[in-house]
Specification:
It is built from seven helices and no strands. With 91 residues, it is mainly alpha-helical. The protein has one domain. The longest helix is centred in the N-terminal third of the chain and has 22 residues. The termini are far apart.
Length: 91
Amino acid sequence: MERLAKELVGRVVPPVVDAAVAAMNLTQFVSRHVDVDLLAAQLDVDAVVARADLDAAITRVDLDAVLDRVDLNTIESMLASSTGCCGAGGR
């Protein structure tokens, strides 16, 4: 009897669950019923980063765009104020 019940559940439940999932908004369901912060706290971030293809990620970086955002005058001012050099044209 128990084997028959398990077999019946094994055949009936998966298609019912598939149909229910297809009919609902999973994003909305998760936002209402899942503690995402708790889930994220359980992630092994080091393991995730270890599996990441960092070379592929770096090749997607637009270095020209990064360099366009660099303000060399600000960097020079920061260096001058922290080291006491290069102020007032004294390079």
